[in-house]
Amino acid sequence: MRAALADLVPSAPGNMKLPPAQAATAAQAIATDPTGPPAQDAKRAASSYLLQIGRRAMATSFQVYLNAGQHPRGAEAALHALDVVEQLEAQLSIYRPDSELIRLNRTAADQPFVASPLLFELLQLCLRLHAETGGAFDVTSTPLSRLWGFHDRCGRFPSTEAIREVLALVDSRQIHLDPGSHAVCFARPGMEINLGGIGKGFALDQCGEVLVAEGVASFLIHGGKSSLLASGSRVGRDGGWWVSLQHPFRDSQPLGQLRLTDQALGTSGSGSQFFHHQGRRYGHILDPRTGYPAECMLSTSVVAPTAALADALATALHVMDRQSATDYLNDHPEIGAILVCPGERAGAIETIVLGIAEDHWRPAV
User: Fold this and answer.
1) CATH class name, domain 100-186
2) Rounded to whole angstroms, how far apart are CA atoms 103 and 18?
3) Phi first, then psi: what are they for 230, rounded to 5°?
4) What residue ranges do the domains of the chain occupy?
């Protein structure tokens, strides 16, 4: 599932579509509001533009969108917020040999690792979500991704015995946290934590805190083009920020438009990472409870109070069956979701909207 600002002109490939002539330079106006104020009113016309401030981090693109002219020091605040993303990458990445998370993974099975307050807080959230989702969200599932070849982007079908062996290392209940000392221990050697399913959302939340602390009330941030955090309103709109969700199969076809009002959006889908084996398609989102790729959903989009929650739950709901996902959402009214499931006919889809107000969702058809 892909997300884009609803009124931007589709151009470059990827989840966030940007207008071709205006997307290159940071802190540059990138979109106009076709329903906004008349051009002769220069002050009001300027407010219909967005400023885009971006940076490459966490192997993807992070972008901050601000209403032009609304916050005099907005661009500077956005740069400060993006500095936080780089700091978090150095701390939480499994691809940085000296990161805190790598050091934790190397030692936690042999001796307690004392984590920083920020990392410990995030791990507490991960374990809570693991319990709430019945194990559907699990930060210890990297051995499975490696076994299936998705970790190296070279898919392969493993044996049943290999899956069974690896599953012995996949279970967040085997992570032991000591709130008093912030110590982290693994119950089994060979376990490892990967925060890829929640890290970008967590980074967006930290960015949002920086912007709010520096007086920026209205903004939209995306990280990885499928994780978004919105605050305040887009000038000239009827409250909030409208974004478009793309069809899981057809890049040029929208699924609908969604309004975010002081909310976050996380999307998950296997449309770009999959392989075929004996005539079947296997996507990269694995069910940590079974060891096999999830097949019930084509894509999931979750609206939540924080970007960390939205990211994690988009993955969790994707591996659940339809009834389990519905039950979870009924038990958590603060969470909304748009679930896209296979339809009855080949190539058809069924869209299920749960926990999202009618005036916040405009289906394309």
Assistant:
1) mainly alpha
2) 38
3) -120, 140
4) 100-186
